[in-house]
């Protein structure tokens, strides 16, 4: 077993867990090295205290899983086979006695599969969550992970550079978006972290607007929120650029967001609670009178998943630790006036934060 | 309440269900008209037998939900509020007595939320699945849905046209893919149904390969599998084109897949079981000696979701009915030789099938 699996097995022994059955593509990837999105089909990784783990996945993916380097058993099922019977047989072979405690991903496993697992392990008195453990395993990134995260961040910077160069009178949000993704694909990027956002003018004043046929015009803010996946690790950047001269009110909003973002970066170092990082930014915005227009948390952890631990909210007491990676992304959205968000990906070092995304943050006015 | 909600309420009355709590973005959209992907945050639609339904979603989306036309209550929660308490209060206001039977989406609801709902409705003796009902509501498409599906299919045809024109010596899969998505975005497409596949040569011999830096060379099959979302409805097309002369073996594989695909189309009409449609194609492939190289079902339903009912497998007895929309996509993947798949979206009419995707299927050899 690899080191990550060994850590999980140790945790299982400490907690008397007989079987851990993981189903989320990201946790299965983290532990097995094989990534797949099986859509509605089952994907599972069964881990035991001492016995060999196994993967269960659609038969058509078996070859890919083998080639990914997974050295243990792989159970492939076709669309007409019942994968649960196969899981049952494989687990029974490994277990000395009926499982009495099973760990699952309660935030991922659906009720239907939960009911199947309860039938499979009828003597299980407890189904506990494996998620806190998986989060703590994944919370601190190793050097390989940081390498991927840095590359993903550099490509996100490049994407903003392309976006900035594409801004011009009358061009639609989707045209700019298409140009960005086209240039990224030419660089070998095969996946974005999430649907790329290019929002112009009033559209940017919605914290989760959707890009469309809105055309860029003088006096607009143009908000880019995007990320790139490199070796399965995500980046996430937001920059807000001005096209032509913007009003004093718009500038005030921009300056407030930037000041808040820099305050949060200043606050981040090992030992600081997430809440203090959020509040460092939030208090700047509140003091400037925009508190009600910043309706979301400061940021979120980043890794295999675009949203992972830690959650950087004003109430999370979790202390920062070397190796954590998360976003810092305050925003102010005033309907009818302007929407501004500035987001960086940061990595906690021994003394503070390493900023992974490096695109400039001073207000850039494109003429 | 709209007609769809009324149908669900009638079903609840017939089955003595007090509350239906739906959580999947597609079912919430189908019933409410509001679509959002809330990521890890809660999205819920609560429906009652007679009382007013309500939506629960992140506070930052409340305005968008209002603007989508939803006429009933919307509960918005911030990242620091507990949405379950809010759901509890809103449900208690509506219910005359404690709920004893609750419907949920067992394939979507996760165990953590299931446990929250069990706490919310402590007297509920039964949690039943709402999914079969939702599938039967969604299985037959209305004229508005068909309009979106036809437009989405026409754009998928256009995407293949672009892809075909981009094939040339030494171009990478990702370069072709980028060109396709660039042209689509210029036409106003903001979302693909799933990650676009452009697979060249040996890569196409994996039924779920991933596009990368592989360069197209003479004698390759190039497989395109892609879809476009229009008004939230998905298309899904696969075409396999030849670049330069291909071997007799490759042609034999292509002809077999095409013959199988046409046989399935010929078999499809109201009253025919899904299994018979699958087997019409499968038997052509098996008789040609390639049975073991066709490892997946013939197709899947299509609508708001890229994979929905019906599942067109060799064992599904469900009979086709006017208004159903699904894919027909046989494939043969012989490692080291070739991978070919041909896929259309079809709509069941009174007399047979309307083919929504219209890009030609005869073997096209690009010189």
TrEMBL record, chains A, B:
Which cofactors, if any, are listed as required?
A: Mn(2+)
**Can you say what this protein is called?**
Aminopeptidase P family protein
| Cleavable signal peptide | none
Output the Pfam families linked to this UniProt entry: Creatinase_N, Peptidase_M24
> InterPro entries from the entry?
Creatin/AminoP/Spt16_N, Creatinase/aminopeptidase-like, Creatinase_N, Pept_M24, Pept_M24_MAP, Peptidase_M24B, Peptidase_M24B_aminopep-P_CS
Where's the Peptidase M24 domain? 148-350
What family is reported? Belongs to the peptidase M24B family.
Q: Which UniProt keywords apply?
A: Aminopeptidase, Hydrolase, Manganese, Metal-binding, Protease
**Which organism is this entry from?**
Neobacillus piezotolerans
Q: Tell me the GO molecular function terms.
A: aminopeptidase activity; metal ion binding; metalloexopeptidase activity
Creatinase N-terminal domain sequence ranges: 4-140
UniProt keyword Metal-binding present: yes
Going by the entry's taxonomy, the superkingdom of the source organism is recorded as Bacteria
SUPFAM superfamilies associated with the record = Creatinase/aminopeptidase (SSF55920), Creatinase/prolidase N-terminal domain (SSF53092)
């Amino acid at each position: 077993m690899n080191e990550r699996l060994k850590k999980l097995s140790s945790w299982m022994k400490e907690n008397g867990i007989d079987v851990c059955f993981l189903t989320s593509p990201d946790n299965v990837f983290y532990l097995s090295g094989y990534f797949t999105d099986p859509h509605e089909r089952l994907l599972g990784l069964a881990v035991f205290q001492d016995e060999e783990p196994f993967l269960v996945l659609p038969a058509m993916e078996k070859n890919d899983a083998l080639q990914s380097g997974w050295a243990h058993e792989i159970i492939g099922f076709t669309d007409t086979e019942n994968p649960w019977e196969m899981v049952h047989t494989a687990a029974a072979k490994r277990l000395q006695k009926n499982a009495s405690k099973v760990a699952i991903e309660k935030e991922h496993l659906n009720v239907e599969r939960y009911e199947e697992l309860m039938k499979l392990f009828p003597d299980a008195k407890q189904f506990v969550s494996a998620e806190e453990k998986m989060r703590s395993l994944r919370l601190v990134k190793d050097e390989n992970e940081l390498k991927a995260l840095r590359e993903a961040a550099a490509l996100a910077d490049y994407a903003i550079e392309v976006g900035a160069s594409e801004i011009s009178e009358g061009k639609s949000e989707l045209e700019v978006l298409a140009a960005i993704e086209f240039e990224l694909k030419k660089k070998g990027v095969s996946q974005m972290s999430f649907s790329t956002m290019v929002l112009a003018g009033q559209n940017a004043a919605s914290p989760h607007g959707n890009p469309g046929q809105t055309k860029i015009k003088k006096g607009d803010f143009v908000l880019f929120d995007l990320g790139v996946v490199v070796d399965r690790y995500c980046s996430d950047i937001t920059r807000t650029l001005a096209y032509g001269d913007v009003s004093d009110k718009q500038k005030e909003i921009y300056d407030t967001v930037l000041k808040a973002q820099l305050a949060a970066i200043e606050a981040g170092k090992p030992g600081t609670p997430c809440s203090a990082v959020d509040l460092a930014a939030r208090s700047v915005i509140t003091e400037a009178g925009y508190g009600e227009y910043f309706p979301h948390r400061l940021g979120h952890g980043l890794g295999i998943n675009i949203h992972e631990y830690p959650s950087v909210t004003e109430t999370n007491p979790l202390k920062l630790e070397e190796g954590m990676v998360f976003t810092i992304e305050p925003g102010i959205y005033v309907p009818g006036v302007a929407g501004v968000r500035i987001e960086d990906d940061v990595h906690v070092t021994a003394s503070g934060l390493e900023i992974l995304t490096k695109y400039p943050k001073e207000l850039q006015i494109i003429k």
